[in-house]
Specification:
The protein contains three helices and 27 strands. By secondary structure, the chain is mainly β. The strands form seven sheets. Strands 1-3-17-7-8-16 form a six-stranded antiparallel β-sheet. Strands 21-27-26-23-24 form a five-stranded mixed β-sheet, with no helix packed on it. The structure holds calcium ion (CA) (3 copies). One calcium ion binds next to loops.
Amino acid sequence: MLCCYAVRRAALLLLCIGAAVSAAADSPYIARVWEYCPAPGQFVNELPEYEEDDSPSMMRVKADECLADDAQVMISLGSWGGYVVFGFDHMVENRSGLMDLQVLGNAFVANSNPNPDKQGQGGSSEPGIVMVSYDSNANGKPDDPWYELAGSEYDNPATRHHYTVTYYRTPADHTATPDNDYKYLTDTTYIRWRDSEGGTGYVSRNSSHTQSYWPLWSDADSLVFSGTRLPDNYTDESGNGSYYVQYAYRYGYADNQPNGTVASKLNIEWAVDSTGQSVELPGIHFVKVYTGVLQYCGWLGETSTEVLGAADLHLTGGDEPDTASAKDALPMEQGKGGLCLLTTLVHDNLIYTSSVAEQVQVLDRTGQPLFSANTNPGTSYLPCSCLPQGMYLLRTANGETRKFIKL
Ligand SMILES: [Ca+2]
Ligand SMILES: [Ca+2]
Ligand SMILES: [Ca+2]
């Protein structure tokens, strides 16, 4: 009897170990889509397909079938702000110095781009902002604080933070406004939007996509989205509307750099709170991706982020060192003279503060002086758009030196 009991106990123990082993076999891929809320767009109701009477929860299930378990079926997030929320079945660890996460998109570099070096890699880049969340109340649900991963354009002065757009359902008695010059634009006043800065515009309709662009499972008369709006990233390289190039931002976004490149991967160490303060997370359980630009590229239509899946790079073995944001690793130095760069990444103007009136010099990376300027106490703007890309130094008369990168 005793012996039998011992055997049964051992069997139970084995069962328990078996259960523990299978529970520990974390999936590297999306376990569940929690929310699918695209903004209006030309692929909405198609990717995934809306069928009559589909409810929001049925559309969530469809998005789940597209993305979970590495199914890699593309979904579209529509115009700016449209989003998807998904989660993993475990915590994606934040390992120091390493890329942790990847969101798969369909960005590509166009070999036919006539100006490949003008602004870096160009092709089809439709950058989506990535937010992450740690399941701090341990209930397995995404009801915890969200943190934005601060990508390369986070400090770009043209990036708008705390931005909101409201899209309005097309009235039943709406009359289409076709574009007489560009016949493919069948309605240039199709879906009106208004932003938090008083700006307005339309999501236009085009002849390639004739279905409704409004998410048909929503019965709301308006849809409101909030977040960060990235600067426009497209250029009409043809000058006549026939060839648009969407230039990739350096790092930190979904559907921006081609899958598989280090710059397409994400580092949880980039997480910031809503005030821009860096947040140290042990890892994350949930991810939100939303379309980060609000722009219209002629026959290409509005720019919309696409998502095909996501992976925990520590489980797939893709967790290479974060060399993508390494150029940002220059410290925000603050010295005795109070010379402080507001950002070490410069697009047009180097913005810095100084506590004294002094002369500053810009030098190339070898220390060769390029030009100088007089600085007053407070914030100064030094035009740098004439400088080629690269690293430079800003030096004061008393030798204080700061490094910056011209993008
Ligand atoms: Ca990391
Ligand atoms: Ca895309
Ligand atoms: Ca939670």
